[in-house]
Every structure is written in C-alpha cells, then in structure tokens.
Amino acid sequence: MTNEQSNTNKLEFIQQLENGWLRVKVPLPFSLKYVNAYLIPEPEGGCTVIDPGLHTPEAVEAWESVLQSLGITFSDIARIVLTHQHPDHYGLAGLFQQRSGAPVWISRASQRYAERMWGVDRSLADRLVEVFRLHGMPADLRDGIKDNLESFVPMVSPYPAVSYMEAGEPFRFGGIDWTTIEAHGHAEGQILFYDEASRIMICGDQVMPDITPNVSVVPGEREDPLEAFLISLEQLSKLDVSLALPGHRDPIIDFTGRCEALIAHHARRLDKMVAFIQEQPESSVTGFAMCELLFSGRITLNMHNLRFAMAETLAHLVRLEKQGRVALLEQNGQYIYRAK
C-alpha cells in the first residue's frame, strides 16, 4: 500500500466539523455500517470522545489509524462520554479507559440497562425471549435471538468503571457547559447535549436524518416506550437547533423538521397496523405475525434485525392498546391483538 492510499483510508473515517470538532465514522459489522463518534478538542488540552463505538478488531484498527493520522495518543483523551448504553456506542468505552485512564460518563439508567444486558448476573436476554414467546415467536428464532444477544458480550468488554451524569445538570466538555436532556423511547437514560448559544445538539440515536430510530419494548423498562419517544420528539422539536450531530448518518440541519417527520412516520405506522389487524381472520393477530406483516418474512433470516423488528412491533402494539384501538387478549397461552 502506498502512503497516498494509506492516508486516504485514514481520511475516510474522519469528517471535519465546526470549532475543530471531528466526526469519526467507526465501522460496524451490521447494516448501519458505522456509528458516529465525536472527537472534541478541549481548550486546556486533550480531547473528549463521544460514543467510541463497538469493540471489534475493525473498529480498533480504524481508531488507531485515525488517532495516528491526527497526532493524538490515547493519553490525550480527557474523558469518554456515552449518550447511551447500546453496544455500538458503549462497546469500546472500557478499552479506551484502559488505554487512556480517562473517566467514562454515562447516566445511571443507561448503566443499569448495560448491567442487566451484559453484566455477570445478566438476565435481560432471557426475559426478552420470554416476552417474544408470549407474542408468538417460534422457539428456533427465540434461540437465535438469545445467541445473538450473547454474542455482543465480547464486543462490550472490558466493562468500564463509570461516573454518572444526570439529565438537567450542566455537563462541561469542549469549552461548553452543555444542557443535558434525557430523551426517552430509544434507550432508557439516553442523554442529549444542547448548547443554546451555538445552537448545536448532540442527539445520540434519538433523531437520525434518513432512518427511524428503533423504539423497543424492553422488559422491566418503560411500559409504553413509543409514547415516551413521541413526547420527547415533540419537546425536542421546540428547541432552536442549527446543527444536530446524530449517532448514525450525516449531521442534521433541519432538526425541527426531522422531529416532525418522525412523529408523522409513527402515526402512519400505527394506522397501517390497525388496517393489517382488521384484514386478518377474526380481526386478530399475534405480535410475531404482525412483525412479519410489517417487515416481511425475510426479517427472520437475520437475528439481529429480527430482535429490533419484533421489539419495535410490540412497542407499536402497546401504543395502539393504550390508544384503545386494539385489545390485548390471551389465547392458548399466547397473546393476540384484536381490532376494536
């Protein structure tokens, strides 16, 4: 490989933003392709890393290449900030902490979820597949989903020692005292960062430019996550934002417009689901059957995507039940939804 080719490979991971900030596109081994990490210089020296990515050899190699090209070492990292606990954001935090000695900041709710999902006494995967059983998912697919969840353990290891930040408390990095906002629906405890003066928002996975954030039922968490998500979007849409930096895809310029588009998308999805139920025999359907109707039978070929699709389907069915548009019934040891 020539030096010119090597430099090109390094630069493909980096985008220069305002104020010397860098967007680092950290590769992922699934359909999203990459997660956005942000490298933010500190006035007193060093830098802050937002959401370093999933712990895979490819991601580590990308980061090492990026840091080398910038003349930065791990010891220059002053802090690691996690918007939320999903593995594609959280996974490298422990390794970065080992190499840098920097504190890792996360919300308490996000850390509780991480411990339930990947900790020594983890139980969330078992509870999730039991929910899927009750809603009609076949045993072989439930086993595949449990194996898929377990496969993430090495990709979030080593676990970081964490410090806690909480919504509503100012949090300083990059020379800015950020307003911290808890954003419900996508990930319990997710923290967004907003600066009114610059009108910049670091929005995690709550708002993305051309894909819809996943909103899932999670056992032991919020009962109606879609309602919480829509309320959050309504509140966020009222903020004066000129640049939003999401966890995936490109920066968002029309932040309010994107929030409104996501709200409209879910309204259409709910209407579509009611129509699907009305078309079924006896106007009833299991959660799994609805998942296949929405995402097509091909969704069962990929356990990672199936888990998200099933949990999101259930989140929409819960919202329809709360709206009084469907009824939840038990039949032969499983739940079914019937149109009212």
Automatic annotation (TrEMBL):
Q: Which UniProt keywords apply?
A: Hydrolase
Concerning SMART domains, the annotation shows: Lactamase_B
**Domain Metallo-beta-lactamase intervals:** 34-248
The reply on keyword Hydrolase is yes
- GO MF, any single term: hydrolase activity
The record's listing under Pfam families reads: B_lactamase-like_C, Lactamase_B
Alphabetical list of Gene3D superfamilies matching this protein: Ribonuclease Z/Hydroxyacylglutathione hydrolase-like, Winged helix-like DNA-binding domain superfamily/Winged helix DNA-binding domain
CDD domains in the cross-refs: TTHA1429-like_MBL-fold
Q: Does the keyword Hydrolase apply?
A: yes
Reaction(s) catalyzed by this protein?
3',5'-cyclic UMP + H2O = UMP + H(+); 3',5'-cyclic CMP + H2O = CMP + H(+)
Q: What is this protein's function?
A: Counteracts the endogenous Pycsar antiviral defense system. Phosphodiesterase that enables metal-dependent hydrolysis of host cyclic nucleotide Pycsar defense signals such as cCMP and cUMP.
Protein name, per record = Glyoxylase-like metal-dependent hydrolase (Beta-lactamase superfamily II)
What is the source species? Paenibacillus cellulosilyticus
